[in-house]
Amino acid sequence: MVFSEIVTKEKISLNDAILLEGLPGVGNVGKLAAMHLIEELNAKKCIEIYSSHFPPQVLIDDEGIVNLVNNELYYYNGKGKERDLLFLVGEYQGIDSPGQYDLCQTIISLVKEIGVTTIYTLGGYGLGKLVPEPRVLGAATSKEVVDSFKKAGVEFVDGEPGAGIVGASGLLLGLGKLQNIQGGCLMGETSGYMVDPKSASVVLKSLQKLLGVNINLSELEERAKQVDSITNQLKDIETNDKEDSPDMNYIG
Amino acid sequence: MVFSEIVTKEKISLNDAILLEGLPGVGNVGKLAAMHLIEELNAKKCIEIYSSHFPPQVLIDDEGIVNLVNNELYYYNGKGKERDLLFLVGEYQGIDSPGQYDLCQTIISLVKEIGVTTIYTLGGYGLGKLVPEPRVLGAATSKEVVDSFKKAGVEFVDGEPGAGIVGASGLLLGLGKLQNIQGGCLMGETSGYMVDPKSASVVLKSLQKLLGVNINLSELEERAKQVDSITNQLKDIETNDKEDSPDMNYIG
Amino acid sequence: MVFSEIVTKEKISLNDAILLEGLPGVGNVGKLAAMHLIEELNAKKCIEIYSSHFPPQVLIDDEGIVNLVNNELYYYNGKGKERDLLFLVGEYQGIDSPGQYDLCQTIISLVKEIGVTTIYTLGGYGLGKLVPEPRVLGAATSKEVVDSFKKAGVEFVDGEPGAGIVGASGLLLGLGKLQNIQGGCLMGETSGYMVDPKSASVVLKSLQKLLGVNINLSELEERAKQVDSITNQLKDIETNDKEDSPDMNYIG
Amino acid sequence: MVFSEIVTKEKISLNDAILLEGLPGVGNVGKLAAMHLIEELNAKKCIEIYSSHFPPQVLIDDEGIVNLVNNELYYYNGKGKERDLLFLVGEYQGIDSPGQYDLCQTIISLVKEIGVTTIYTLGGYGLGKLVPEPRVLGAATSKEVVDSFKKAGVEFVDGEPGAGIVGASGLLLGLGKLQNIQGGCLMGETSGYMVDPKSASVVLKSLQKLLGVNINLSELEERAKQVDSITNQLKDIETNDKEDSPDMNYIG
User: Fold this and answer.
1) Are residues B3 and C140, on separate chains, in Cβ contact within 8 Å?
2) What ipTM, to 2 d.p.?
3) What is the average pLDDT across B2-14?
4) How many CB atoms neighbour CB A134 within 10 A?
């Protein structure tokens, strides 16, 4: 009953590689960060994952060509001391709980075979309010990863996120831990109200230190400025509204 | 756990055939178009598909006879240069996402064996407003099909439909593409508020050119006129209401 | 993953038997009718059906003893010209669509082996308003059953029920038809607002004629009178309210 | 498609043991009672149960370490005449109905093999109002267990709980009964509005008598006093509000 198809675009083998998960989530922080990294590192697509755990839907590209909803893996061969990287991205996560488990199990098997030994998941941590200076919060499968994250400026706040981590960012770590794959989650603080390139940018700054790669963040930071500018305009309008009509609350 | 039964009413084999999908959807455009074509071409039922992915329900015909909800295939042997056709119609699509995948996979296997090499799916593209002159939008599995659709007057608008195509009309193409079956979707613009024979009629006009068949559309066009007439009466009433009570908005 | 257990309390074999389904539904008409028949005919329990398609729940009897939610079969050996009967009753139907299909398939296999050749399903037809003189509407798997139902006073109204028959009452007929088991559904008209013994009673009157059994309906009719009495009191109160405050609608 | 993993932390074998279920539920009464018992008896973790029937989620401990959502078994070797105990606890029950069945079946198989012959499930019985002196209500798989519960001060009220017992507390008994495992449920009355240590404490008092163990309840009773104190303050505020503004209802 479950449909699943793994399409191998390029057969690859990596060495002691890190899987970087950047599927859609709060503020799309993880997706933005992973997509930016794929572009900057010029990572190449190697695998497409199709599954009935995704919505029954095709997306249409600019040429009018349909493509079934999927998740995709991109790889990057580390230069010098850099570790090999594998990226997990896509338009959707599994649509229900058993589907999430099934997909994450499939992906872990797949990436282990390719040579992945560590999993970093990237996501947003929604605060429900504007975050002028977002921090990067962490969680990890072991004390060692916690320590390495702390050295990269990732903060660990006791009891946060209180609800744990839901979805692929949590499940890949939890299921990976059961299979002795170490890893951790980098969560950029975000309002959760909109796509948040600033949060993605601070996540990437921590990731740079962790991975020892140098990434040009100017494009993301430019987009972050644009979002900031729009947000500030909205705040100004709101403030002016209040100043111009001081009696409104009294009357209303 | 999954119940599935294929009942073969007539054993058939087609040659380089086109599957035309017309299951219920927005404005029932695809269903209206496919049912009209079945009637005009006098296509014959060959297969019934029963599945626990459909609602647990029987329908009752005019004689009081119950029939389990299903999907059905009708065939038409092309005359002269016409290609053979197979129609997929029914009262329901699969009721959930894994069910949609499972049914579409079953149907693709089934029709491939019968001789289908191309899939055209028919549907409506809901605009959320009245559409006096509906266009036919397209999406396809390959550049070749896009070009053939354009020659038949089908329009490709960059980034539309933005949400892609959900349900059997999308999935049959997406899953078919993974199995090297080419195809495309014809979407008649429609308000989405009601069953729309005018939109079905424009879809059929494009389809005539694609298939090289000649179809009498007078019945559909008659129904389209009736719907137009009712819509106009409703608009008149609405307009008069507004004119007769100019102060309502002021007072209210 | 699917849990299913058939517990045989008494091993039985019937001859050309009729399955009478009376699971919960609109107005609990089918359940009331089947339970009344079981009591009047002193039918005996032979099989318990447990399944993960039922709610994860135990019921507690008057002694404080828990019993897992199930469906049960009761049998009655026909006397003289009477046909053997098997009753399907329970507190719940399957909780989702695939579960309904799975349970009905299981039940059909089970009862065929016991000797069932005909299925009559009993239910209510909700009208959304009080029904002083409920009729019994029918639907069936074949012209022959339609004719036999008509002779028993069952009415066939063109296009009713428009939505067909949902749940076990429909599915047992639809799936049975695919396996060449004939049958039909008897639907007592009911408001659908409350448990309706009057509707159950008219269904049983039709059933008596169909089965050629004589059933004492006095208890059901007594309960029907009580429900009528309460309904009339409620109507009186409502009417008086309106009479005492004649201006309410005018003012409001 | 279903993911399930049993991780054995310590291989154990018990003798004629009792399983005590304390998963989350109404007022978290069962969970509080079981966790208190685990602590007081210094029971040790022996098994972790992972399953795709739990939410796709990791929890984060105080060190920032992620752990996949699971259920856990703790054991206690009875001293002298005490029976061996096995505890079932966790942060979640199965998230849907088939998942509940599947997990409970898995757990019953597992604990039977370890040596469990009796199942006591612990829960809350929500009354929807404050309960100054909560009673412990019972339900059981047999007359014998009912009698033993009554001797321990557990009350059986005819027709309560009217809705039966939903979830693991009911299902473990119902499925266990089908496998000839006896057992019963202890339900502490609770408002259902908040976590209720007082209700957990009265459940444990009954359990002490049933198990013949001596448990220090002072910590739970201290927490119960704190909750009582807060509740009383809230009631005072509410009462004062009403007294200070006697006309509010009149005016409003």
Assistant:
1) no
2) 0.90
3) 96
4) 25
